[in-house]
Design brief:
elongated, Immunoglobulin-like, single chain, mainly beta, 1171 residues
Length: 1171
């Protein structure tokens, strides 16, 4: 079993040292030794409610001690009374609470003896209390006169302290006490002077004994108070009382201490106890008590006055409290005094106790015994419980010392020293064991120890020997004593190996020897790897309400796996595993998760990793960041008309320093309840001089800002009102807005409430027509606008606006120029001309209108155009106008997006803020021819092994007269390589199909077709396809024609085809004649066809109709001389193409184009391959 033998602190080392040293002195019980008292009773009370009383006395020794008792100094036989129960090998006895046991009261002493000597216990007092009772007696009533002093005696019975005395009436109501009526320490009730209301017949004294669980009551006493008998001749009762009081008035007289004690008395108190000095006086008027210390000052820290000043109490009395104390009782008639001479005494206490031990034969012995006390104690020596006779004792003996020389085995004994004075007795024993034995090694042989690298290891070798033994340690097979600095041998034989290393592992031997003999044991030491831990993250800073995960990473020796434990602490307090505090803090082995972090979560978190050999701690301080606490204690100072100083106390910053403080204000006159920012103060400044506006009733608050955010606002300051003043500024943003040509609306930004500066704010508006008028026109208004009517159209005015209030005017305002109302331009641009740039773009030029004809601010020009007819077919078009705006004063513009080969008309107009002016006369221009758009579609109608038939549609827009088509094709393959591009020119613009010959079999081609005009050719439409090889179908069917599943599949396909043909035939019969439909198919409408192409163009590879009539084989020939219109008719439709076995060709469509020439709108048709 591995044992923990290391420590990191020197205090632990000293702890081990002290324990081992004590163990080394203690004699093993296997060695012959004197008796030693190990347990005994002390003063004991035999309570009547207890069943029995135990008097303890236990001792150890070798041989086993026997026990004897004395009672009050005389032998006491435990067998003398059958109520005493004894125990084997023990001095303890039990007295059963049967019958009268008062004869057991006394002082007992226990003696434990064996062949070597006798040990003696301290005296054990057994107190057998009687049940306290008041005697039954008849108490005569007390008849006294008004003003007399009276004492009601309690005389409580004796019992076990503490004793509590109470004076109550028969209804158990306490008798009120004060300076006049009070109870003494002995329990008597004193009246300094009686009054008539003191008369009653139920003065009862109660004595309570808590330890005896008893309260007893004395017989009730009667007190009668009558008026002064010589006052009976007076006619007035009050006068009689007053006269009586006058006659009874007297100076104080002490009742405690009584006058018989004289003017002074002596008091003895035990050191450390409680001093109680009591003075009770009678007199009329009621005396007042006071206390002084004649020989010094009363101790302020521990002296108190009780019982209405009649008792002086001092606790924990020391020698300094000795001296003379004086009490003084005084009233208007005089005073009286008494002095207490206080003497502090103490029971015996040890200065030097005799110390026993183990001694070798031939050594010397000196025992010292010193005690002090007051009175000085007497010292008595005893040997084995008996007084030493100096005549027969071979050594030297004095009051404080015993000495012996050349000790022998027979000198073994128990020496007792007893110190006594009148306050008590103390006993000290010293066992002198004279031994001559070989070393005894008390530690077991072959113990296994373990520790971790870097820590200390302790190998134990407890021993006992007399004479003293020499101890040495060796390692493994070496005979050399371990003596390096890392090895330290303690007095108890323990070997400490400091800062252990791996190579300290091994077997060690402890050797103990003296003059009598020699012994040895072995010990095995294993060195383990030290445990290491790290907490991540280290000292994190976390925002309040966020979460944090602490992880404790650890390494430890594999041998210590079973004892390895992890725990978490916060600020030293343990956090339970799997604990949830409000479901926020979760501890799970090596992780600690805190959600919704609060400020209370801040602190030092420790991960504690422990094994059976070591324990290590890693710390991480969690710092919680939060917005600052609100500032406090806002104060205003340095009051001025337009400024005040604001000061405040900053709130807690919560680990993020305050970057700035924002001062906000609220004023109650204009916007009550609305807080606005006034200024900002940088850093940790807590004061600011605030610039204020006149005529405002302010209150302020402060918001602190740190890196986390803004604090809550502080509580508002007191209000501060500034006096009114003339305006400091004039309105800004003066402008003219006019909705009608003959009016002018002058507007400006009104002053803010903080800019008014006083009551009665108005605006003085001044204006004049620039260059025409010299005098200013003026008007006062309260609004922030002024409208002038019947003004000339769009002429300049000089305008200024000045703020005015009841206290004066603002500064001289700036002059602003504005224009009166605008009207639309009344002239059109001239000299409009058009330059043709290309078939879709033209450049327009014009001459701008004169500035005086704009009649406002010129915004720009608008160009409008519309198509009138197509130059291709001469058809007129419904005019659809297009517009383009050119901002600013310019005389040209580019018009894009025109249709080629068309006729257009174009106009230009000027516009201003009011609207558009008249248009110029239309200009006619024509756009030239352009290149056509790509053909609508490209279809592969027939593929052979070396030829193919292509069909295409007309271009979506010809953009001119078609001159023909360009047909191109090239070989492509799967490796993205392409062959040379071959061109064929189709000069007949009516030709919409072409048969290509001389192609390679089983080769993939890409085809391009583009339409041309005199201007050039447009973008091509593309298609891909694969030529076939001979024997294709045979190659396919030879392998599968005999398969059963293939035969079933073909039958299913045939049935499905037959069903489809039947459905089509029925539907055709339901439709009636088809002459119109056939005509539409042969001669499609170009516009309708265009709509179809736009909707279905991208699906042209799979939405083609088969030719009319029966289904053609893909290998059939289509001649170039067939009607092209016929091909167009069947160019688009809802059904795809079918091959010879009836399968849908569209299933193989959609392969990616591989050619380098690509164009928009291309389609792809890929044919099935037959190997």
């Amino acid at each position: 079993m591995e044992m923990l033998l290391h420590t990191k602190r020197i205090t632990i080392c000293l702890f081990f040292f002290v324990l081992s040293l004590a163990a080394a002195i203690e004699i093993p019980l296997s060695v012959a030794q004197l008796p030693t008292i190990t347990e005994q009773s002390h003063t004991q009370v035999a309570y009547p409610f207890d069943e029995d009383f135990t008097i303890k006395c236990e001792a150890r020794g070798n041989p086993q001690p026997t026990f004897n008792w004395t009672k009050d100094g005389k032998p006491f036989n435990l067998l003398s009374d059958p109520r005493i129960i004894t125990f084997n090998n023990s001095g303890t006895f039990v007295i059963q609470n049967h019958g009268i046991i008062s004869n057991f009261q006394g002082k007992y002493r226990c003696y434990a003896s064996n062949a070597l000597g006798t040990a003696m216990s301290e005296e054990i007092e057994l107190i057998v209390p009687s049940v306290p009772k008041f005697p039954k007696e008849k108490i005569e009533p007390l008849d006294v006169e008004h003003g007399d002093s009276v004492i009601l005696h309690c005389n409580p019975p004796k019992g076990i302290p503490p004793l509590h005395i109470y004076w109550m009436n028969i209804d158990l109501q306490h008798i009120p006490q004060d300076e006049r009526v009070s109870m003494s320490l002995k329990g008597d009730l004193y009246f300094a002077n009686v009054e008539e209301n003191d008369s009653r017949s139920d003065y009862c004294c109660f004595a309570a004994f808590p330890r005896l669980r008893t309260i007893v009551q004395k017989m009730p006493m009667t007190l009668k108070v009558s008026r002064f008998k010589h006052a009976n001749d007076s006619g007035s009762p009050n006068a009689a009382v007053t006269k009586a009081n006058f006659i009874k008035e007297r100076k104080p007289k002490l009742l405690i201490p009584p006058e018989s004690a004289g003017s002074s008395s002596s008091v003895t108190v035990i050191k450390g106890g409680v001093l109680l000095l009591e003075c009770i006086a009678e007199g009329l008027p009621t005396p007042h008590l006071s206390w002084v210390k004649v020989t010094g000052n009363l101790p302020k820290d521990k002296s108190v006055k009780e019982n209405f000043g009649k008792i002086l109490k001092i606790e924990q009395v020391s020698a300094a409290d000795e001296g003379t104390y004086q009490c003084t009782a005084s009233n208007p008639m005089g005073r009286t005094k008494h002095e207490f001479h206080v003497h502090v005494e103490e029971p015996p206490r040890w200065i030097k106790e005799p110390e026993g031990g183990v001694y070798s034969v031939g050594t010397n012995l000196v025992l010292l015994c010193e005690a002090i006390g007051n009175p000085e104690p007497t010292i008595q020596w005893k040997l084995n419980g008996m007084p030493i006779d100096s005549r027969t004792f071979r050594g030297r003996i004095s009051a404080r010392e015993i000495s012996l020389t050349n000790l022998q085995l027979q000198d073994s004994a128990v020496y007792q020293c007893e110190a006594s004075n009148k306050h008590g007795t103390i006993l000290a024993s010293a066992n002198v064991n004279v031994l001559n034995i070989a070393p005894l090694i008390l530690t077991s042989d072959g113990e296994n120890y373990a520790t971790v690298v870097g820590y200390s290891a302790f190998l134990h070798c407890e021993f006992f020997a007399s004479p003293a033994a020499d101890i040495r340690w060796t390692k493994d097979d070496s005979v050399e004593t371990l003596s390096a600095l890392r090895y330290e041998l303690n007095k108890n034989g323990t070997l400490e190996i400091k800062e252990t290393k791996k190579d300290d592992s091994g077997s060690y031997a402890c050797w103990a020897s003296n003059s009598v003999g020699k012994r040895a044991i072995t010990a095995n030491l294993d060195i383990r790897d030290a445990t290491k831990i790290v907490i991540t993250p280290k000292n994190p800073r976390v925002l309040k309400s966020h979460s944090i995960l602490l992880k404790c990473q650890s390494e430890y020796d594999s041998h210590l796996k079973n004892s390895f434990k992890l725990s978490w602490r916060k600020d030293g307090d343990q956090l339970p595993v799997n604990s949830t505090q409000d479901s926020r803090i979760i501890v799970d082995m090596d992780t600690l998760f805190i959600s919704s972090v609060t400020l209370e979560d801040q602190g030092v978190y420790m991960c504690v990793a422990s094994t059976s050999l070591d324990s290590v701690v890693a710390e991480s301080r969690l710092i919680v960041l939060d917005v600052p606490d609100p500032p406090e204690d806002l104060q205003l100072s340095e009051h001025q008309n337009r400024s005040v100083r604001l000061s405040w106390k900053a709130g807690a910053s919560h680990n993020s320093p305050v970057n700035e403080s924002i001062i906000e204000y609220e004023e109650s006159q204009w916007e009550p309840g609305r807080w606005q920012e006034l200024t900002q103060v940088p850093g940790n400044d807590t004061t600011a001089l605030l610039t204020l506006a006149p005529y405002m009733n302010y209150q302020f608050r402060v918001v602190s800002v740190n890196a986390v955010g803004r604090s809550q606002p502080s509580k508002p300051s007191l209000r501060y009102a500034t006096p009114p003043a003339a305006p400091d500024k004039n309105p800004e943003n003066i402008r003219v807005e006019a909705s009608e040509p003959n009016e002018m609306v002058m507007k400006w930004e009104p002053l803010k409430p903080t800019e008014r500066n006083g009551p009665g704010l108005e605006y003085k508006v001044s204006w004049r027509q620039r260059g025409v008028e010299t005098d200013w026109n003026e008007e006062l208004v309260k609004k922030h606008s002024l409208t002038l009517r019947n003004t000339p159209t769009f002429v300049p005015y000089e305008i200024k606006v000045q703020a005015v209030n009841n206290l004066g005017t603002g500064p001289e305002p700036n002059v602003t120029t504005g224009y009166s109302g605008e009207d639309t331009p009344d002239a059109a641009p001239s000299g409009v001309s058009v330059d043709i740039v290309n078939s879709t773009l033209v450049k327009v030029f014009w001459f701008g209108i004169p500035r005086d004809r704009v009649r406002g601010h010129l915004k720009g020009y608008k160009v409008s155009w519309w198509k009138t007819k197509s130059m291709l077919d001469g058809k007129r078009h419904h005019p659809e106008k297009h517009h383009l705006t050119f901002v600013g004063d310019r005389n040209y513009g580019m018009i894009p997006g025109l249709e080629p080969f068309s006729e257009f008309r174009l106009t230009v107009l000027a516009y201003n803020s009011k609207g558009d002016g008249p248009e110029s006369s239309p200009v006619v221009f024509e756009t030239p021819e352009g290149v056509p758009e790509q053909p609508r579609f490209l279809k592969i109608l027939n593929f052979d092994k070396d030829s193919v038939t292509l069909s295409w549609g007309l271009p979506k827009k010809a953009n001119g007269h078609l001159t023909g088509y360009i047909l191109q094709y090239q070989i492509i393959n799967e490796t993205h390589e392409i062959g040379p591009l071959s061109d064929i020119s189709v000069a007949n613009r009516s030709t919409l199909s072409w048969r290509l010959s001389g192609l390679s079999a089983s080769t993939k081609y890409k085809f391009y077709v583009k339409a041309c005009t005199a201007k050039g050719c447009g973008n091509p439409v593309t298609e891909e396809g694969l030529t076939m090889a001979q024997g294709t179908y045979a190659g396919i069917y030879d392998g599968i024609s005999t398969q059963g599943w293939f035969i079933g599949l073909m039958c299913a396909v045939a049935l499905l085809t037959l069903l489809l043909l039947t459905i089509c035939f029925v539907r055709r019969n339901k439709g009636g004649k088809y002459s119109v439909k056939e005509k539409e198919d042969l001669h499609p409408d170009p516009e309708a066809q265009s709509i179809k192409d736009e909707i279905f163009g991208e699906y042209s590879d799979s939405d083609e109709k088969p030719l009319k009539g029966s289904l053609r084989s893909i290998n059939g020939d289509i001649k170039a001389t067939e009607s092209a219109d016929s091909l167009v008719d069947y160019g688009e439709g809802e059904h795809g193409m079918f091959n010879e076995d009836g399968s849908f060709i569209g299933a193989y469509s959609g392969s990616k184009e591989k050619g380098s020439v690509e164009s928009t709108g291309s389609s792809t048709a890929t044919f099935p391959l037959h190997a």
